[in-house]
Amino acid sequence: MAEPVHASPAHEEHHHEQSFWRKYIFSTDHKVIGVQYAVTGLAFLLFGFGLMMVMRWQLAYPDTPIPWLGSLLGENRVGANGSMLPDFYNELGAMHGTIMVFLGVVPLAVGGFGNFVMPLQLGAPDMAFPRINMISYWCLFMGGVTMFGSFFLPNGAAGNGWTSYSPLADTALNGQTAWLIGMIFLITSSLLGAINFITTAIQLRAPGMTWMRLPFFCWAQIVTAFLLLLAFPPLEAAGVLQLMDRVASTSFFIPEGLVIGGEVAEFSGGGSPLLWQHLFWFLAHPEVYVLILPAMGIVAEVIANNSRKPLWGYRSMVYSLIFLGFMSFIVWAHHMFITGMGSVMSTFFQTTTMIISIPSVIILSALFISLWGGSIRFNTAMLFALGFLPMFGIGGLTGLPLGLSAADIPLHDTYYVIGHFHYVVAPGTLFALFAGVYYWFPKVTGRKMNEFLGKLHFWPSLVFMNGVFFPMMIQGLNGVSRRLADGGITYDFAGEVAGLNRMMSVSAWCLAVAQIPFIINFFMSIRNGKKAGRNPWNSTTVEWLAPSPAPHGNFDQPIEVVRGPYEYSVPGSDKDYVPQAEPAST
Amino acid sequence: MSDHADLDKTVRTYILVFVALMVGTLVTVLAAELDVSVPLAITIGLFIATVKASLVACFFMHLIDEKRVIYWALALTGAFLVALVALPLLTSVIDQLGHFTSGGGAEPH
Amino acid sequence: MEIPYTVEAHPETGLNNGKIGIWLFLTSEVMLFGALFATFIMLRLGSDGQWAHMQEEAELNIPLATINTIVLIASSLTMVMAWASLMRGQLGRFKLFGWATVGCGGIFLVIKYFEYTAKFAHDHFPSSNTYLAIYFTMTGLHALHVIGGMAWNAYFTGPGSKLFHTNRQWLTDRVEHSGLFWHFVDLVWIFLFPVFYLL
């Protein structure tokens, strides 16, 4: 009864030359979309970093005029002498967090690497739903435009923290409404992307690519996609409710008799501010794993390739990953220990939090052990991957005290927390993403990036990252609160550690300088890099069987996978790697 | 693919399910008129709604005879849905119980 | 370039891409409405016994909502009949049932419009209290889903049905998938109706 498959009209045009718009702007090719995501993500990372560098001026030199920018920012943002007003500081802080998480790391790690690499590693010709893939990118783009545009609103962008706690965010006069609309775009984008990723992984694996032959990176993307799929909708619901609070004056998150500026606010009341926290962290804790799992995936690929050894404990790593994804849904209230939820529930959440640290430790240990006895190639990608391991380790271990409610109560809302999660995401995830850029750049462009400039990028970055984030731990343990617009200089307890602010700020600006070699390298190598063949790193996984750069449709030969993903240094083999799939022609 | 005889049977099932849903709707409305306590009324109302929803899911959405991948996805969603509804609820309910069980150890609210 | 398993089923999973895609989408929808139902429960329990009072004051129109329930369930029946007609290869009957489904959606929205305006006329707004707030938010979001489902069905019944002549199986599958979404919207209403109007 089933009729033969006919080409749909949308697909026929691939047989002839595509216009510029269809090829590069509204493309349905997963590789072009991946590059679009990655470039957008990198641009927003730079922008979010820029916001932070302005903040760091205020922290290092409170209430002194901001150099160069002071006059450009307008009188809402800077005082008479050109120094930063507290509201502007809040705006920078909230938007730095939002942009780095939702417009920087997620688009690069999931949208960029996931889109570009995963179908290639699966041996698939494209994503399962190419047009939905395109729509997903343009939703992200609209979200980015909305967030960026909100800076130009009369009262500036949102300034209520990236967590947008109610009732502050419900009643603030700044661009919170634009923030919510932007978030709804970004959530839609992630949901469409997640559906696409999971369907692709289930349906489009090449013949012979069984689940246990899947590269670890693909596993990481699949688990990440499930997190996005099931954790984001509650935040979408919460966003809609907060939007209703702001636009239709409902009281979902507004308690009875809220007093603002000495007057009872005109709300019916009856809502629950804690409800926002629950719905927000129901997403935002899994979101932490959305940031970290793709990074682990990239690091696993780079380490296996450059240590010329199979990953140690591949199966345990995969099971840990799945367990980690599952557990990440029931730990969220460890962000809420100080809300007074009672000792019973605190105990529940600190127990699940301690349990979730186990699979992370398994994965990290397996990666460390994978290095043992390998003949390691210290190229730039490998350096960044190796940098990831201890940096993420510091981030993870400093998180343990925060998972115990007794230790969390004094540490919460201090710089210790900032130091902790930045170690996870900045020298952790960002290093892994840089490793990914250096590693897959030849597949995207057909050319390698420059090794010397790469090393010039890595070593200063490593030093200055620690220069920025380690002093935060010291400050936090001394009790310096986060979100103080003067860095705590006016508080007695900060006295002896307040001076560290200047060191951190200088480190941050030096960190910016250290990115210049990367930017030069990135653009220069597109045209002038050393030409790379199909498989410049002598890698085993399937993406390296495609031409570099790969054409629309990816492979010029049928792919049949015959073995596991990391067959390096197989005894008795004539070369030190055995590709996962032999081309059918040889 | 099912042939025509199977399809006829399926269509008959659809019509039966439709009739059952109509009856269910009627029963819900009538049951709400009963003079029972609020918890019992909620239980009855949600029970009927769940039966109706199951009919829609099983027969109109073909879940009664679906492939494994879809059952897995739904089971996963169900587990997280329970967490999403139950845990915030428990934090607000046990908070009040905590004052009795932990002898004032619970934080003031 | 062809994406594999767009129409034919994958040998391992027994499903085509669209079926998996739509079900994954529905799982996210379950979490979306689940979060809103959780909100509903939290607000109701946190209302200090005021809930019944707010509900009484709102005076929602039970007869209209009952008619709407019947309309929406009927539209689910016409939806599966539309799919069954395609399975039999009857394009005319498919279009009849397809437009009937879209029409039922339209009737639902018109009735909903009269319900809303009646509330507004009595100064019942989302800002009045938390009961009305969650009522308007959830039914409003549900109505948006009805509009989305109508558009989807209208496309496949109208211009999209040309696919019947070139790839009938694909059209049948697509209608099945849009039907899954439509039944889900019906399913949400089956809970919304007693939760807001009756309990």
Description:
- The complex is a heterotrimer of chains A (586), B (109) and C (199).
- By secondary structure, chain A is mostly helical.
- Chain A is built from 17 helices and two strands.
- Chain A has one domain (25-255, 268-545): Cytochrome c oxidase-like, subunit I domain (Cytochrome C Oxidase, Chain A), CATH 1.20.210.10.
- In chain A, α5 packs antiparallel against α7.
- The longest helix of chain A has 37 residues, at 86-122.
- Chain A is globular and about 80 Å long.
- The relative contact order of chain A is 0.10.
- Chain B is mainly alpha-helical.
- Helices cover 80% and strands 0% of the residues of chain B.
- Chain B has helices spanning 4-33, 38-60, 68-101.
- In chain B, α1 runs antiparallel to α2 (38-60).
- Chain B is flat and about 60 Å long.
- Chain B starts with a helix and ends in an 8-residue tail after the last helix.
- Chain C has one domain: Up-down Bundle (Four Helix Bundle (Hemerythrin (Met), subunit A)).
- Helices cover 79% and strands 0% of the residues of chain C.
- The longest helix of chain C is centred in the middle third of the chain and has 31 residues, at 91-121.
- The radius of gyration of chain C is 19 Å and the shape is elongated.
- The interface between A and C is large, with 53 and 49 residues.
